[in-house]
Amino acid sequence: MRDVARQAGVSVKTVSRVFNEDRHVLPETRRRVEEALAALNYTPNMLARTFRDGRSPVIGLAVPSISDPFFAAIADGVEQVAAQHDMSVLITSLGAEGAREEGIVESLLRRQLGALVMAPTATDQGYLSRWSSKLPLVFVDRPPRGIDADCFVEDDLGGARTATAHLIDRGHRRIAFVGNSEDISTTANRLHGYRAALEEAGLPFERDLVLLGATTAAGAGRAAAALAAADPAPTAVFSSDAQTTMVLVPALSGRRLAIAAFGDFPMAATLSPALTVVDQDPDALGRLAAQRVLHRLEGDDREPSSLVTLPVRLIERASCRPPHDLVELFPSTTPSGGDARS
Amino acid sequence: MRDVARQAGVSVKTVSRVFNEDRHVLPETRRRVEEALAALNYTPNMLARTFRDGRSPVIGLAVPSISDPFFAAIADGVEQVAAQHDMSVLITSLGAEGAREEGIVESLLRRQLGALVMAPTATDQGYLSRWSSKLPLVFVDRPPRGIDADCFVEDDLGGARTATAHLIDRGHRRIAFVGNSEDISTTANRLHGYRAALEEAGLPFERDLVLLGATTAAGAGRAAAALAAADPAPTAVFSSDAQTTMVLVPALSGRRLAIAAFGDFPMAATLSPALTVVDQDPDALGRLAAQRVLHRLEGDDREPSSLVTLPVRLIERASCRPPHDLVELFPSTTPSGGDARS
DNA sequence: TTGTAAGCGTTATCAG
DNA sequence: CTGATAACGCTTACAA
């Protein structure tokens, strides 16, 4: 920049003015500076810029796992909006357990991010209160606990209730719930929705039919075994999340059960039978979160934080036949070779 | 930092020394400074730090689409390694077309990244030569064109040849190739592998059986129609990438064909029939790329750039039955509702 | 061992 | 409209 100033015979400040399209520059001066700018192929140093205003044009994004298609879709949404506003997205995976969340997020935050979008894994986010005044904090998929912040979630309760009611409508009376962990708000809410549908239909809630920890092949195997052992056996299953569904489906191969699942995923419609699912819109979740971030970044107004719940909808396919008419699920024709790595 | 210095009665430089664990500090002084550090809850300003040494501890990652499970897995690998070394990962989607690559990457690079890892979409990366001396450039999945740089790819040619040969072994004589675009190196290499297998078996290569542009539902539909129209009809299909496979599979529902695909994906083993695929390891690709970045960042040595090809392996499942024994592919049982949003 | 001074590239302030 | 100067927080070079 100094070189440009020398070449144009002006001060660095004037170069800065021209470059930033400040109006208070004589056309003639502007022309000279622009020439020099072009001649020397000037590129501004973003580091200096961000250093100066103390905040980088970067949105941090922390999710349980970036390779989970659901969170990848959220990331995509955030990235789309960020890119339109000349911001970048810094991605971090938190891991499923929650124990590492605080450490990872703290070190992310120390990088002077412009904002943070996060789908938490820990059971408490109180540690973020130190930061909440310094940068916009927006939660997605899972609301924060121990701190108040903007949040975008799907209608977990409603979706689970709808799906469960759908199974009940089809004539099922014993329906199992298979999912991740009650420590995760989405799972907890979906369990509530499941119970609500049961209650509305006057059906008993049975703890034995709630099978958690089923997001790994081993966990899904245990869940499948428990389903088989239950007496009387359930005739239907509600799978609480896509991760669970993707491992549960192979574990249920050959069984005669109805199945409905929360969360659509690629190939769900191509399985045999095609899966009836509650469809979410993770991309919208990401876009909305990013938009809120930008809004917070611009308006210095202190609006109260809001919780937005996105509607979900049931996609009826073929996996919810009535109890007397069940077909074999996902018949196995595999001579060798396991399932895809997660 | 100034405050800490004042509180401890030393100069800022000494604080800096203590904080950076410089040994040339008296234990007594160190103690006082550490106390002040703790008392004032000092947090270093990363922006100032990175500004000073001109380079941020950030690895840029540019991929066609972060919501594609394959690239999400690469991102995961990069992120794992980066996190272990206290670096962050800035993610950008380039879009499938390639037209926007240069603009997006240039603006990413202007942010003074520490390094760039990229799976290119454009047909030429010559524009990067301006940057190659300033930061490590590492390519994944697709080699660069018009510039020399480190690169990690899978064995596209070998994998495609193996899969095609597998179909030939099973007795197929007319095998179609369905894929993305020859402009993409992976597709081009896989097409070569397919031809090589054909040649080795003394089978003719027929341009009519090469169906490209099949990565969208519409494209896959066209490919499926072309397959049906071909005369004599092919008895087998080789799908060149997972994106294609995921849209092609629904389009082929009900047909009697053998099918082998490049790229495993969740549920491939649970389809009916279970898909025989060439398995890649995108996570390893990401990890290796990140490791090379770190290596380049540390050693100032000017080693020549290298091209590493990762082996792939065929996972035999059930979708490659002989011509006389074909079964209906992915029987459709969907009464309503489309497939998942990609 | 500790401190001082200078500088990284940009922009805000304020004077001319 | 334009320019000199300071400041952002930290680290390196050099002195004491």
Structural features, described:
2 copies of one chain form a homodimer. Chain A is α/β, with parallel strands linked by helices and 342 residues long. In chain A, 39% of the residues lie in helices and 15% in strands. In chain A, helix 1 packs across helix 3, helix 2 crosses helix 3 and helix 9 crosses helix 10. Chain A starts with a helix and ends in a 27-residue tail after the last strand. Chains A and B meet through helix 4, helix 5, strand 2, helix 6 and helix 10 of A and helix 4, helix 5, strand 2, helix 6 and helix 10 of B. The first copy, chain A, binds a DNA duplex (16 and 16 nucleotides) through helix 2 and helix 4.
3D shape of chain A: elongated
Indicate the percent of residues in helices of chain A.
25-40%
Largest chain-chain contact? Answer: A-B, 72 and 73 residues
Contiguous runs where pLDDT drops below 50 for at least 5 residues of chain A: 334-342
What's the β-strand tally of chain A? Answer: 12
From the alpha carbons, calculate the radius of gyration of chain A and give it in angstroms. 26 Å
User: Counting H and I runs of at least 4 residues, what is the number of helices of chain A?
Assistant: 11
Largest sheet of chain A: 6 strands, parallel
**Average pLDDT taken over every residue of chain A:** 93
Element order of chain A: H for helix, E for strand: HHHHEHEHEEEHEHEHEHEEHEE
Instruction: Kindly estimate the percentage of residues of chain A that lie in beta strands according to DSSP.
Output: 5-15%
Structural classification of chain A? alpha/beta
Oligomer: homodimer
Distance between the termini of chain A: 50 Å
